[in-house]
Structures are given as C-alpha cells and as structure tokens.
Structure to design on (551 residues):
C-alpha cells in the first residue's frame, strides 16, 4: 500500500466538489462542500486562537448530524486528534472518557450538555454547542471573546472572500495518531483504540478499489449507524467525503420505518447496515408471504417467478438504486441469508473491528458464500491459530495497515492484544476454507450488537445489576431482539433474613427500573429471569457464557 495523506485527499475533494451537496440532515438543512469548508476554516481560526496544538485531543459527543461531520473534519484537518463519543453514554461515562482522552475541546449536543458537569471535566478549555457552534464554556473566560469576534477574524484572514484556493489542510503521516475510538464508556471497561492515518487510508483505498469502485461524486448514502463508531464513521461518512458524495444523516432514532422512508426518498447508491435492519424487513414483509406460498414455491418455474417478485420488492424497499447492501457488526440470521442468496439479492456480510478501523474481510455480493464474511480485504492478512485451520476453529489473527497502534494509556492491554510476531488477536473464533473465505464460529468476546449498531458489553450491565442486594451474580444475554438478565439470587441469605424465594424475586424485579436508569437507552434490560442454582463455571470460576446463549 502506498500511503496518501487523508487530509490532503479531503483538501482535493473540497476543491473539486465545491458546488456539490456534502452533508444533509434528513428533512433538514443541506451543506455544500463550500459550506463545510467555510465552517472548517472558521473552526481552525478558533482552534488556533484558543491555543489548540497539533496532536491535542478534541472530543465530539452528539447524535448524527451535519455539524458532527463538520467538527470531525475540522479536527483532523487541523492536525488535532478526534475523540468521537457515543451520545447515548450516561453523563458519568462521558466525564470519564473526556478526562481519560485528555480532551481540550468538547463539541456537544445541548441536550447532553444539560446533564454534564464541567467541574467533573477539569482539563477542558472549551465546550462548544455542536448544533449552532456557539460557546457553552471557556476556561479562562477570555476565550469567549474568540467566538464573539470569529466572523470578524474570518473576514480579516480572507478579505477577498473565502474560496477553494484558500484551502490548505494539515498533511498527516502514515503512523500518526488520527482518532481515539472508545470500545465502551464505562471506567474499567473502556479501551481507547488508537487509530493511525494509515488505517483510515487503507480502509478508504479498500472501499475505492475493491468494494465500491462505482461510487463517484454526487452519489448518495444514508448515514444511519452511529458516526461515533468506526463502521458508520468510515463507510457512511469519511470515504464519502473523500469521494465527493452526499451524506444524508438521519438525525433521529433509526427505526426500520424511518430508515425505509428515507431510502424511498433519497435512493442511496450504497447501503451500509447491521443485519437486524434487513432481518426485520424480512420477518415483517416477506416471511408471511413465504409461509403462505410454500407449496407454490416448491413448483419449478413458478418458484422463479415468485423469487423475482421478492427480489424486485426488496430492491424497491431499499430505494432501488444501490449496488449492494453491506452488512456488518453481527452474524446474519442463517434463514434470512439463505433466502436472500436464493433470490439473488445484492447483499454481502463483511467482518471488522474497531481495532482495524474497521474492515478485515469482505466479498462482493456476487462472490458471497453463505455463512462466510469473505476473504481478507485489500491490504489485510488473516490466519487461524489452529493446527487445521480449515476444519478446527481457532482464534482469528490479522495483520496489515488497518491494525491499530494500541490502546491509549493501557500498555498491558496493548501487549495482550498481539502475538509475539505482531499479529493482532481478534478474540473471535473461526475457520478458513481453501479459497481463503473466513467462517466465524463464535466470538470469545461477549459483545452484543445494539439495535442501531451500538456495541453492548454485557459485563458492564452485569456490573450494575450485581451491585443490588441479594444478587450473587448475573448474566446478560441477547433474547429475541432484546436483553434479558439471568440472575442467581442469594436465596440462602434471604432465607436467613426471613424472606421467601418469591418475595426475594419480586424485590429484585422491582429494582429493574432503577437498574435501567443507570444504563444507556440502547442497552435497557427488558426482563429478568432467575436461576434456581449457580451458573456453570470454568476452572477459573468464570461463567460458561456459551451455555446460556439463545438464538
């Protein structure tokens, strides 16, 4: 791979696509590339006057919106390090991550700011309301004058009016730190993944050369995944900005109804999604028809006619203009995948991780193998830690320019993440066939994918539950699209305290609203189930989680 500066690619894109739509809030404002460039230029002036140095950290915490993109791009093209934070994190989590990342500047949604405490973020210099780019806090107070006189400063710097020729962005280098992306929000669980510019460039090159070479300036994408996560950030935003495409941010909870309405209006040229969205469409729209017509679909020729109808209806449902739907973040339901493959639908399932920014494996829709996430992506190497990698599952190991630098301020975790000869240990289990296609056989890591692509780490939820009286231990599992907490109560202690089993279970059940109040909205526990005896455990006394999973 021959590295190119990301920021210089962005500079080139802004100059070439000056009069092209860049970022839109769905059913709201549209910013052209010239508008985004102008806002970036103003932020650069403010950064400089605030004393922000190259390499300083800038946290961004808001829902998906056009100004999220502006602030992220302004940070990178200035030479600072972007720290995107999921807006659904609880205030305490945000405080922790802002502090842990050493952020000097925080761009934040006003609704989030209402619940934050500046006293709990003592190293912040400036807090900016992201929707309007107005100042919410400055330390020292004199910094507020910078924002008040920003238009005046902008006019002095560009007296002949700001034009494409005025753009000159910071030139990054391959191993330079670009982004710190946190795997979760909770102290004790969060790891700041340090992603260099080479990892971002390699993913952009993958998309441009291998995955979506047909995408060009002016084409459209609907951004529905969290931009604070690498999957959405890279393939619904950053690649598009380099290419000159038009990103439509949903800006609201991406329910299937909202998503499909947006698709029907925008007609995106590429769709990046999590399997849950596709599966919901299948279950609600197609499965009832399939179940009613099983006999007819078994008749040769007629089944082909019906399959073509399904194909056309599905394609129209997703806007009708896309090359393929790229799914990632979780396993695809086997029943749904077999049906989509049977009708020739343009889908593919990729594989990636935050630590690879994110892509590891991919195959184009017409080269898909059912149950596989494809061979190693462009620039990447994948191997299985097994004596017989074709038949005996082993840990998936990867190497290549996509791989991260390490975990921020966590040398122990960084050292544990790599083999002695430099392969990154994914923690996932799999096999590789003779053609190099990876088939995942389970995740040794316990992450659950949330409804909109959020990473849910059950250990964090369990830590909250386990704090409640009479809870010995808990296990959070994915259960029919929701989260269920399996709880082993302290029946013995309750008996000593004169509390019956049923009374104890009712007492714990009443704590569910309080438990959920401590958890993000996307990680709410739907129900509790009680274990009559302790969980089965390994010799190290860890719960054998795989015994309790549900499909």
């Amino acid at each position: 791979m021959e590295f190119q500066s990301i920021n210089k690619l962005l500079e080139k894109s802004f100059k070439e696509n000056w009069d092209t739509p860049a970022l839109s809030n769905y059913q709201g404002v549209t910013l052209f590339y010239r508008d985004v460039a102008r806002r970036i230029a103003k932020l650069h002036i403010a950064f400089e006057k605030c004393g922000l140095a190259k390499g300083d950290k800038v946290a961004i915490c808001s829902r998906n919106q056009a100004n999220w993109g502006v602030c992220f791009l302004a940070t990178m093209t200035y030479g600072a390090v972007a720290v995107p934070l999921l807006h659904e994190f609880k205030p305490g989590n945000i405080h922790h991550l802002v502090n842990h990342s050493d952020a000097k500047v925080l761009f934040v949604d006003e609704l989030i700011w209402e619940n934050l405490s500046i006293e709990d973020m003592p190293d912040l210099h400036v807090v900016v309301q992201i929707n309007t780019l107005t100042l919410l806090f400055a330390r020292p107070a004199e910094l507020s004058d910078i924002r008040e006189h920003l238009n005046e400063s902008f006019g002095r710097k560009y007296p002949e009016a700001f034009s494409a020729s005025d753009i000159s962005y910071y030139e990054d280098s391959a191993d330079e730190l670009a982004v710190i992306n946190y795997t979760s929000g909770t102290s004790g669980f969060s790891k700041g993944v340090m992603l260099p510019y080479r990892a971002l460039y390699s993913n952009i090159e993958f998309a441009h050369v291998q995955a979506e070479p047909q995408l060009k300036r002016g084409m459209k994408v609907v951004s529905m995944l969290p931009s604070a996560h690498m999957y959405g950030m890279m393939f619904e935003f950053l690649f598009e900005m380099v290419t000159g495409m038009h990103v439509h941010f949903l800006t609201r909870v991406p329910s299937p109804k909202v998503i499909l309405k947006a698709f029907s209006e925008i007609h995106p040229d590429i769709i990046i999604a999590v399997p849950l969205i596709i599966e919901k469409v299948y279950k609600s729209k197609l499965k009832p028809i399939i179940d009613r017509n099983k006999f007819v679909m078994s008749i040769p020729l007629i089944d082909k006619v019906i399959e073509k109808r399904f194909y056309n209806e599905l394609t129209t449902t997703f806007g009708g203009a896309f090359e393929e739907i790229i799914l990632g973040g979780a396993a695809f339901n086997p029943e749904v995948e077999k049906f989509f493959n049977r009708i020739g639908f343009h889908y593919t399932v990729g594989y990636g991780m935050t630590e690879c920014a994110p892509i590891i494996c991919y195959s184009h829709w017409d080269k898909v193998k059912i149950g596989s996430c494809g061979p190693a992506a462009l620039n990447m190497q994948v191997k299985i830690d097994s004596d017989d990698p074709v038949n005996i599952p082993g840990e998936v190991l990867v190497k290549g320019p996509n791989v991260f630098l390490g975990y921020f301020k966590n040398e122990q975790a960084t050292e544990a993440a790599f083999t002695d000869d430099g392969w990154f240990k994914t923690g996932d289990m799999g096999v590789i066939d003779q053609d190099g296609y990876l088939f995942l056989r389970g995740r040794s890591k316990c992450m659950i994918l949330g409804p909109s692509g959020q990473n849910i780490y059950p250990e964090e939820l369990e830590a909250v539950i386990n704090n409640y009286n009479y809870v010995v231990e808990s296990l959070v599992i994915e259960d029919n699209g929701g989260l269920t907490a399996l709880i082993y109560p302290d029946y013995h202690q309750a008996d000593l305290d004169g509390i019956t089993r049923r009374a104890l279970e009712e007492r714990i059940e009443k704590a569910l609203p309080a438990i959920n109040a401590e958890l993000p909205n996307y990680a709410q526990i739907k129900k509790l189930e009680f274990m009559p005896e302790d969980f089965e455990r390994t010799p190290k006394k860890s719960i054998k989680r795989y015994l309790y999973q549900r499909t």
Notes: The mean pLDDT is 91. Residues 6-216+224-249 form a domain with the Rossmann fold fold (CATH 3.40.50.12780).
